[in-house]
Amino acid sequence: MNRKELFENIKRKKSFLCVGLDADVKKIPQYLLKEKDPIFTFNKQIIDATADLCVAYKPNLAFYESLGIDGWKAFEKTVKYIKENYSDQFIIADAKRGDIGNTSELYARSFFEHLDIDSVTVAPYMGEDSVKPFLLYPNKWVIVLGLTSNKGSHDFQFTTDSNGERLFEKVLRVSKEWASEDQIMFVVGATQGKLFEDVRRIVPNHFLLVPGVGAQGGSLREVVEYGINSQCGLLVNSSRQIIYAGQDENFAALSREQALKVQEEMKSLLEMKNLI
Ligand SMILES: O=C(O)c1cc(=O)[nH]c(=O)n1[C@@H]1O[C@H](COP(=O)(O)O)[C@@H](O)[C@H]1O
Questions:
Q1: How far apart are CA 18 and CA 211, in angstroms?
Q2: Active site annotated at which positions (predicted)?
Q3: What is the ipTM of this complex?
């Protein structure tokens, strides 16, 4: 999916919500454990209940890999299900990969060839040659960790060099040269609030993947205030707050209610910014 199509979907659905499919076998409704594939059954119901309210899904690989082969199968089935039933959804494999070139090549192959997923999150720490193999796929997206949502973002990302440039700023400035705005997005945590202004000074046009609203307490209003651009430029992820809204048979309907609340706020913010 290209940038124009993504923006068209945002306008049509009046939403820039990404639902995070972080399905933890210990947190999903426990009655699902009697199913043959509880994680896929859970995901399928969440997807069916939210697909008209969001433009993207982000399964985080940790939740699947932790279950071994069964988890990987549930991941593949989830991706296939989205692609076959909701082809307008942008799929993000949240894998935070990145390694020496020949290894990254294989990571890229698994997500972009084997699974044909739209995008993958990548850690930039190992530099250009660790990210480049992902960029060899012209219609796919690489989502580079820029300024993360967690407390530990302060350990390294805010350290400054002799010119006063912070590490996250250097990451954005340097890595945006590795490919065009049609292939690279950046992760910026919703918890970083006003710092979106600093991010936008360096990458005014890029799409940003923004986790950290909901369970981590980031403010959607602030993200929009400081981070939106003329093509919206934001995919705001919420995982736990949406997918764990209920524990009984009606869990998917409760997830939908949560997603609807976020989508309604997004609609009014898009209207306020004259984008719809
Ligand atoms: O790359 C990410 O998606 C990510 C980056 C970041 O800085 N912070 C962050 O929370 N995430 C992911 O976004 C999701 C957030 O989940 P919730 O806090 O439950 O909404 C998880 O899958 C995290 O791994």
A1: 9
A2: 96 (proton donor)
A3: 0.99
- pTM as predicted: 0.97
Average pLDDT across the chain, whole number: 97
Closest ligand 1 atom, residue 63 Cα: 22
CATH class label, 3-272 = alpha beta
- Assess whether the C-beta atom of 146 lies below 6 angstroms from ligand 1: no
Nearest alpha carbon, ligand 1 atom 13? 211
Quick check: 237 and 58 in contact, CB under 8 A?
yes
pLDDT digits (tens, 9 = 90+) for 187-209: 999 999 999 999 999 999 999 99
Sketch the domain layout of the chain as residue ranges. Answer: 3-272
Which pLDDT does position 185 carry in this prediction? 98
Tell me the best of 94, 186, 255 to mutate to test the pocket of ligand 1, counting ligand atoms within 8 Å of each CB and taking the most: 94
Residue 39 contacts residue 230 (beta carbons within 8 Å): no
Instruction: Note the pLDDT tens digit of each residue in 21-66.
Output: 999 999 999 999 999 999 999 999 999 999 999 999 999 999 999 9
- pLDDT category at 131 given cuts 50, 70, 90 is very high
Q: How far is the CA of 212 from the centre of ligand 1 (A)?
A: 6
- Name the one residue in this structure whose structure tokens are 């990458």: 203
Ligand 1 mean position, distance from CA 162 (Å): 31
- The torsion angles phi and psi of 147, rounded to 5 degrees, stand at -130, 110
Taking the alpha carbons of 75, 76, 78, 79 in that order, is the dihedral positive or negative?
positive
CB-count exposure of residue 178 (10 Å: 0-12, 13-18, 19+): middle
Q: Torsion-angle region of residue 29: left (phi > 0), alpha (psi -120 to 50) or beta?
A: beta
Q: If you ran DSSP here, which 8-state letter would residue 204 be given?
A: S
